[in-house]
Amino acid sequence: MSLELISGAAAEGAGNDGLFEGTVSPRRVKIDDGKLAEAQAFLKEAFAGRKYDRQIREAFSTSDFTLAAFATVDSELLSQYSELPATWRSYTDVTTVNDFRPKRLMDKWSNQIGLKRVPELTEYPTGLGGDHSTFFINVAKFGLRDAISFEALKNNEAIDELENIPAKYARAAQETETINALANLLNVDETTNLASGVNTDFFKSANGNAPASVDLSAEAIDNVLSAMALKKSRNSKLIAQPALQIVIPKALEWQMKKIQALREIRVTDGDTESVYDNYLSTIDYVVEPMLDVINTDSKAAKTWFVLPKPGQARPASFAAFLRGYETPDLRVKANQGNSLGGGAVSPLDGSFDIDDIQFRVRHIVGHQVGDPTFTYVSTGASS
After folding, report:
1. What is the pLDDT of residue 113?
2. Bridge partners of residue 306, in order along the sequence
3. Which of 181, 185, 10 is nearest to 86 (CA)?
4. Domains and CATH numbers, the chain
C-alpha cells in the first residue's frame, strides 16, 4: 500500500465530494443516536461471524443505516489513530493553517544591544538593525483509495475488509504524519515516500549545519553540544541554547544506551586529560523507527541528528494541519445506482461501473524547516 499526493483534477474532485452524489462522509452528517447504537450492535455481531451475507446486504440497503455503520467504522478509525504513537511530535513543532494558501512564519532579530543613552532634552533614539527571515508553510492532501470487489462480497469477505479499515487507515495516517515531519530532515520523494538521504537544502554549509561524517559517540555528542553553546546570533550576540535532543534511527538505539551507561568520560585538552562522571547519562534522545523504514541511503543506519525540543524559542522543524481537519477523514463511494423499481441499492451491492465498493481516506498535512542555528546531522564516519 502506498500513500499518494492527491492533486490536480483528483484534488478538485475530492474537494467537491457530496453526500450520495459521490462519496459519503459520516462525520459531516447528523446521525440519530438510536441508529448509531443499532449499527454498532449489528457490526459487532457481523465481525464476530454471527451475521450472514443476506442479512448484511439487507441492513446496508438503506442510506441511514449505511451512514451509521460507516460512522461506527470511522469512530473506531479515530480511536485507533489517537492511540498510535506519534514520535514525530517529540522533535517537531506543530501549527495550524486556515486554508491551503502558504502561512507566513517569521524569525525576527535586531543588531541593537541594550538601550541607548538619552541626553537631557533630546529625542529618544530609534532601534537600528532590525531584520527578519520569512518562512512559509502550507498543507496538501494525502490519501488512499481501496476497494472490495463484488466477488469478495459474495465470498463473505467484505465484512472482514470493513473490520480491517480502522487499523489499516489509522496506521497509514500516522505514517503520513511521520513522513511529513521527516521531510524536514530527509530528502523524501513524494511519489514513493522514500528518502535518498539527508535534506541538503536545509543541512548545508550556508546554514552552518552541513552534514558531518562522525559516528555517534560520547566524544561526538560532547563536541557538538560544546560547539552549540558558543553559537551566536546574526548580531554577534551569544544565544541562549535551547533544550536539545538527539534523534536517531532504531539502528542506533543500542549505541545510545551504551553511551548513557558509561561510568566516566575522559576528555583530553592538549596534554591534559580530565575524567568526569558521565554527564551524558541523562541526555534526551528520541528513537524514530521510521528513519529505518524510509531512509534508503547507504548511511541511514548511522545517521543521527541534534534538534531543539518542540516549544523552544528557535524551532527548527514545523508540521502543519488544516484547521478543522486535523484527523483522517474516511468516506465510502456511493455510486451504485438504483434498482429498476426505483429503490435504493446498498453500496455493498457494488458500484454501477465495475461492481466494487470503494473506500477513501484523506489526511491533510504540511511541513517546513525553521531556524537551522541549533541543528546538526552526521551520516556516520566514512568507511
Report:
1. 66
2. 246, 376
3. 181
4. 4-89+99-113+123-185+322-369 (no CATH), 199-317+370-378 (3.30.2320)
Q: Phi and psi at residue 168, in whole multiples of 5°? A: -65, -50
pLDDT, tens digit, for every residue of 253-288?
Answer: 999 999 999 998 887 777 788 888 889 999 999 999
Q: Give Cα separations from 283 to 5, 89, 278, 317, 366 (angstroms).
A: 37, 18, 10, 20, 30
Give φ, ψ of 54 to 5 degrees: -65, -45
Tell me, letter by letter, the H, E, C secondary structure of the chain.
Answer: CCCEECCHHHHHHHHCCCCCCCEECHHHCCCCHHHHHHHHHHHHHHHCCCCCHHHHHHHCCCHHHHHHHHHHHHHHHHHHHHHCCCHHHHCCEEEEECCCCCEEEEEEECCCCCCCCCCCCCCCCCCCCCEEEEEEECCEEEEEEEEEEHHHHHCCCHHHHHHHHHHHHHHHHHHHHHHHHHCCCEEECCCCCCEEEECCCCCCHHHCCCCECCCCCHHHHHHHHHHHCCCECCCCCECCCCCEEEEECHHHHHHHHHHHHCCEEEEEECCEEEEEECCCCCCCEEECCHHHHHECCCCHHHCEEEEECCCCCCCCEEEEEECCCCCCEEEEECCCCECCCCCECCHHHCCCCCCEEEEEEEEEEEEEECCCCCCEEECCCCC
Q: What is the pLDDT of residues 212-238, one digit of tens each?
A: 999 999 999 999 999 998 887 666 677
- Is the dihedral angle over the CA atoms 324, 325, 330, 335 positive or is it negative? positive
Indicate yes or no: pTM above 0.90: no
Grid coordinates given for 368: 517546513
Place of cell 498543507: 139
